[in-house]
Inverse folding.
């Protein structure tokens, strides 16, 4: 029996509560953030899974239907593609979250991606339904929340793991923490893991109607400001903010940092190796406060980070380093994070 799956990019929409239809639209009518219905095709691989609206990974098979959103992706380690590259209705799920397009460059180290065929746009009363129609409205709150910012040298460099550890330490100290992912390609489970680690509330760019942040800088800034305004209205003690990808990739990490401004209290760099730390410093002109990720996996790596970049590094995956990491954060943020 075939099933219809609502991918996690639909979590801001009401498709689980209210009826909808679908119909094919001419390509001239397609746009980033449009909700579409697709049919699963091809031979099943490990990537034939869809992330649910709760962040759970669910297997799919040929004939099943997936509702996601059109968008763009430019991942260094996995794949590059866009809805603009779709040909004859042949598509891919560019992430399990339902970021729909067609890969034009794809890592040979990965299984074949989830193949889809376009069946139509989600419509009501003849009009297409888009993510922007469900986006968070502008709050009147001013963003002035002290922020622990987590950036990376690439995807899969340990940013989310670092963010989880920060949330755990700060929530254990009875601080009110908001977790957010400000840039990247829609994957809900990353920010959901912040909540599991102690963040009281979580948000990401999907909340403001973006399927990924591979958009123009102007569109990104216009979209992210309502999110920061809303977070500012919540009265949280700290924001733990992850930026997906790296500062030099087309995901708008630089503009995100600019929007955070002087509220950035600490920058943690999750790095793939010690030399990548130097690369980000020189290419992007940012000096992090601490290095995490694989670049801190061993004492030799930590020593090399110190030698190359004159920066401290902590292997935050190792739970034995929690006191050291807590002491570092306490010194930067002015809170006794070991009291609890």
């Amino acid at each position: 029996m075939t099933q219809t799956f609502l991918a996690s990019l639909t979590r801001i929409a009401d498709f689980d509560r209210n009826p909808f239809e679908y119909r094919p639209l001419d390509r001239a009518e397609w746009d980033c953030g449009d909700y579409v219905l697709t049919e699963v095709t091809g031979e099943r691989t490990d990537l034939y899974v869809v992330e649910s609206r709760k962040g759970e990974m669910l297997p799919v098979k040929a004939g099943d239907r997936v509702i996601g959103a059109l968008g763009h992706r430019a991942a260094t380690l996995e794949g590059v593609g866009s809805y603009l590259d779709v040909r004859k209705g042949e598509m891919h799920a560019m992430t399990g979250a339902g970021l729909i397009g067609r890969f034009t460059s794809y890592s040979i180290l990965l299984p074949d991606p989830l193949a889809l065929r376009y069946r139509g746009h989600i419509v009501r009363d003849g009009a297409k339904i888009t993510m922007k129609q469900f986006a968070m409205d502008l709050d009147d709150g001013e963003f002035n929340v002290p922020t622990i910012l987590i950036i990376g040298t690439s995807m899969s460099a340990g940013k989310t793991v670092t963010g989880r550890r920060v949330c755990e330490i700060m929530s254990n100290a009875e601080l009110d923490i908001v977790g957010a992912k400000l840039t990247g390609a829609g994957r809900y489970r990353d920010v959901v893991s912040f909540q599991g680690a102690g963040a009281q509330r979580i948000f990401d760019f999907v909340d403001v109607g973006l399927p990924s942040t591979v958009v123009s800088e102007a569109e990104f800034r216009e979209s992210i400001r309502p999110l920061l305004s809303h977070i500012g209205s919540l009265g949280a003690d700290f924001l733990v903010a992850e930026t997906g990808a790296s500062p030099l990739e087309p995901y708008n990490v630089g503009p995100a940092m600019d929007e955070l401004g002087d509220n950035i209290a600490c920058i943690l760099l999750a790095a793939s190796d010690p030399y990548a730390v130097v690369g980000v410093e020189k290419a992007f002109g940012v000096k992090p406060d601490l290095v995490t990720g694989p670049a801190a996996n061993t004492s030799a790596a930590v020593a090399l980070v110190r030698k190359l970049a004159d920066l401290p590094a902590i292997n935050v995956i190792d739970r034995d380093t929690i006191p050291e990491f807590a002491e570092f954060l306490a010194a930067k943020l002015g809170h006794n994070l070991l009291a609890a």
